[in-house]
């Protein structure tokens, strides 16, 4: 009888542990072992969020700006020279893209659980997520840049004032 009571108490304690949030977090270690799944979900998140497209756009801007600057550079023999330089620059930047994406994937896989990544991806594929990607980033990022540039002079003044105050004390 005593053994049955002990066995039932152990079963009760085990069921409490298995149902607890702490155990759910502990089970996250199993999630870590599924890092291949997380990397695949991260790749999808990065693609859906437009990060890869943003990087491609920045690469194109760098190449275009570099091409324009090279054409104006004295000593650049012809537009052929500028085109060759532009091609080399484009290839070099594209070669750098894979290591950058790899680093983003590793960071993502370290910091998000599979459940979180599925939720993120589901959001980006939903109508609300699509609206956010289409409108939100396009509206918010320029607004943020404008807000930063508007406040920058005030920040500089505060830094100057605080610096002078500390030096005088």
From TrEMBL:
Domain DUF2059: 109-153
Keywords linked to the UniProt accession: Signal
InterPro entries: DUF2059
Pfam families cross-referenced by the UniProt entry: DUF2059
Keyword Signal: yes
PROSITE patterns: PROKAR_LIPOPROTEIN
Protein name from the UniProt record: DUF2059 domain-containing protein
Organism whose genome encodes this protein: Burkholderia cenocepacia
């Amino acid at each position: 009888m005593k053994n049955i009571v002990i066995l039932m108490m152990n079963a009760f304690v085990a069921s409490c542990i298995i149902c607890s949030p702490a155990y759910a977090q502990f089970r996250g270690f199993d999630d870590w072992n599924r890092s291949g799944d997380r990397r695949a979900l991260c790749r999808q998140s990065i693609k859906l969020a437009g990060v890869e497209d943003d990087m491609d756009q920045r690469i194109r801007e760098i190449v275009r700006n570099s091409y324009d600057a090279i054409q104006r550079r004295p000593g650049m023999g012809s537009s052929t020279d500028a085109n060759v330089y532009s091609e080399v620059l484009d290839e070099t930047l594209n070669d750098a893209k894979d290591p950058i994406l790899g680093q983003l994937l590793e960071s993502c896989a370290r910091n998000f659980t599979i459940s979180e990544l599925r939720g993120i991806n589901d959001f980006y594929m939903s109508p609300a997520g699509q609206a956010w990607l289409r409108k939100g980033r396009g509206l918010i990022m320029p607004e943020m840049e404008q807000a930063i540039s508007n406040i920058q002079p005030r920040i500089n003044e505060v830094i100057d004032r605080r610096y002078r105050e500390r030096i005088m004390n």
